[in-house]
Amino acid sequence: MYREGKSKPSYSRVSLSHSTNPNLSLSLSLSLCVKMSDYLPRETLINILTRLPAKTLLRFRCICKSWLSLFSSPDFTSAHLRTAAAKPPLLLLRGYSLTGLTPRYKELYSLRSDDADFTSLLDLHCPFNTRTANFFRVVGSCNGVICLSDDLLGYTYTVILWNPAIRRYLTLPMPNICFEDYGPYMFSLGFGFDPKTNDHKVVRIVYLEGSGRVKGWVVPPKVEVYALSTGVWKTLKGSKIGYHMVEVFWSSAFANGGVHWTAYSGGKSTGYCNVVLVFDMGSEVFREVKLPEKLVGASPLDLAVTGYKDTISIFQYDKRGPYCCTGFTVWVMKEYGVEESWGKLFTGSLNGGVSTVLGFRKSGEVVVEKWDGTLVSCQPGKIKKMRIRGGKESFYLGTYAESLILLDEGKCVQTEDNGSSDEVDSAGNAFVARSLEKNSLRHHLFAATALNP
């Protein structure tokens, strides 16, 4: 995917035959599996099967009807996911190609090892295109499913759940609250998992535009939830949210069964009051988490939330805006749910400026996109170049674990699997770079205006 000057290691593969003929190898593998299923106890067989890659299990569905049914069952899907989650975590990296080598500039996804070299293990072909010459917002990644939203420009309703391991996707239906019926609005999304019901959900918070004496976005917003188990949007009633979210630059993080956003009340003239707003995926109820005192009155534009191990973290930018931001501060809630446990992890600054702070590595280092679209890994007193560059503010970093989710609900997609590797060119394309810079400037100015109605 990215130019790094090294050959790409591949995933380890389970091989049930030493034959050099792929078709013969698969045939022998299937025959061996059929014989195993006749003699092994069911529990032992399932224990073996849950350790296989998702791609292999897809091929094994043709063995017999009982296996086809087994692999689609929620219990097997959950067991397979638990096995995958127990392995060393992978990191999902998304960037936007600046090369003009293809008919269309691409969103480039790759799975990375969280080792010292940030080794690229596998490139994921993204089969989707936005309605404009832009890229999708990655709402989040949970249990091997990536939630994408085409919302960076204009009113669109395209939200996609995508499982690249099994090459299946689901486009969510039209939401209940749309421009045609309600007029102008601003919205935020969250994506996560309800462990009580084994259900994946998307929550949509919609702020309608005020009229008359009411200016800006109206609170409380309207809220609707999509559940994978039902396949429909459900409008929630009684959600008395008294906070706004930052237009365009909102971020969300799924942790401990809830989706988290930074939100605010007040304004520049009266003073801001910032909190972390949490939506519990099980109870479908909102709650608030207090921020450290130093962050309560900060500009909402300077705050972003992300996950950190089993808890959450806040990135505070040094005056984020349309012009170069030079530094950031990382805050961590050391014990989830205990507001007194908030602490400052470290403060960093970069020559050349900070565009976006992306997230953490297992070492505690923070991955940061610089103003020129290059990535660096930061820790106190040390900055390491990562030799990766892409479109400005197009990067996303999250954890990834392979799963079988969407096997039944999703549609199959055709992917490029020719062994070729797309790159984010370090030279880039001047026209695309200027376009992304222009979009970034407009987004910053729009968000700043929204905070000062």
From TrEMBL:
It comes from the Eukaryota. This is Uncharacterized protein. It comes from Rhododendron molle (Chinese azalea).
